[in-house]
Design a protein that fits this description.
Number of helices: 12
Helix content: 10-25%
Bound molecules: FE2/S2 (inorganic) cluster, fe (ii) ion
Strand order of the largest sheet: 12-13-14-15-16-17-11-18
Number of strands: 19
Length: about 475
Amino acid sequence: MAAIEPLIRGFSSAVSPLTEDLLAADTRDVGAGLRARGNYMPQPKKIPLLRYHSAEYAALEKERLWKKVWQFACREEDIPNVGDRAPYTVGDLSYVIVRTAPREFRAFYNTCLHRGTRLCDGLGSGPSLRCPFHAWEWNLDGTLKNIPSRWDFPKVASADYRLPEVKVGTWGGFIFINPDPGAAPLESHLGVLPEFFKACPAEDRFTAFHIRKRVRANWKVTLEAFLEAYHVVETHSDSLSFTGDASTQYDIWEEGAAHISRLITPLGIPSPHLGDHASVAAAADRAFEVFAMAMPGVPVPRYDSASPLSPRAQVAEWRRQMMGAGLARDFGSWSDAAVLDSVQYFMFPNFCPWYGEGLPLVYQFLPWGNDPNESVMSVRLTAPLPGGGAPRPPSAAIAELDFDEPFSSKPEIGLLALIFDQDMSNLPRIQSGLRGASPAHPATTLGRYQEQRIQHFHEVLEKTLGE
Ligand code: FES
Ligand SMILES: [Fe+2]
C-alpha cells in the first residue's frame, strides 16, 4: 500500500487564517454545506499537453464525453414561455432545448430531417419548430406537423420523422441534457449539490447578466483557469489586499457517478502572501469599495476601529443590510461567508455554479467549432429574486464577445470585467505555449493541494474516455 504523503492544506498568516478557521469564527452558523469537507483526494499525475491541442483527443471527447454525459445547457428562465427555445451547441454537436409545457422541457437534435439544416440558431419562440430552408415543421413535442408538397415524399411516414430527442434533466433552474439514451438520471450526477444549495436555492435566482466569450484556448485550458486560486498572486495581484487566495479551501466529493469539487476563497482579509503585518483594516476598506461598485450611488463605508466586529465581519454586516434593503428580503441569518466569499462548485464536465451572495456567478465551458484550440465560456450573474411579491425580473439578453473583444467592452459588470480580462490575457498564451513545449517536458505539473480540482477533473475525464 502506498504511503500517504503529508499534505499542506493551504497557507495562512497571522492576520489571514485558513478558510476553515474563518468559517469556524463566522458571526453566524455557516450551515452544513459550507462546514462539510470533501471525501476524495486525486492521485498526483502529470497531464499530457497533447490533450489540450490534439484533434484526435478532441474527436475522442466528442464521441465518449459530449455524446455520453450530463452537461449544463441553459437556465429555465432563458426560455420562460411555452414554445420558447434555445440552442445548445458543443463544438459541432447541437441541440435545441424547448419549453413544451409550463413545467416541461424537451431537447432535440438541432438538425432538420429533410436535408440537415440547423433548426435553431439563437433564442426563439413559436408554436412549432420550422426549418428555414423548405419549411418542414414539427410540433413542440417533436411530432411531424407539416411537409410542404407532402405528395412528393410518399415514403415519409410521419411516425418515422419525429425529431430525435435527447434526455433532459433540471435542477435549481438549470437545464441539463444527455444525448446517451442509456444514461442514468441526472439526479445520480448531482452529488452534494442539491443538499448544499438548499439554504440558497439556485431556482430563486435570475440571470442578471450573461456574457458568452470566445477564447483562443482549448475548453479545458479555459475551465482549468477558473478551478484554482493559485493564479491570483500573479494574475490578479491587485486583488491581494482583500483576497485570501492562498488560504483558499479545496474539496472534492466522489460519490458514484457524481464528480463534484469546490473552492472557497475568503474575501475581506488580506492575502497570506502579504505577510503577518498586512492590514486587515485596508482589506475591509477595499472589500467595501469592491462590493459598492455594484451599487452606484451608495456611500462607501470605512472600517470602524471602535466596532466590536472584526473588519471582515463589518463588511459582512453592511452586505446583509444593503442586500436586505435593495431586495426587500431579510439576510440577517446569512453567514459572513455566504455574503462575502467566493464559493464555487464544479460538476464534471462543464458546469460551475457559485454559492451564496459573495459572487453569485455561473460558468459554462464548451469547445467552440471543430478547432481544439478554441472554446467558449459563458458567464452569468444569477441575482436573487426580489422579495415583497415583486415579479420575477426578465433574464438578461446574451452578450456575445468575439475572440478579440474584451470583457471591459461591457462596463456594466464593473470590476469583474477587469478580473476576467486578466484571466483572458493568459489563455491564448497558455494555448500557444503548450503547443510548442519541449519534448523533455510534455506534461503539466500540478500543485498537490491548490490544483487538486484540475487533477480530479482529469481523473474523471480519463475514466470517461476509457483511457
Ligand atoms: S432542409 Fe429543412 S426543410 Fe429542407
Ligand atoms: Fe482568475
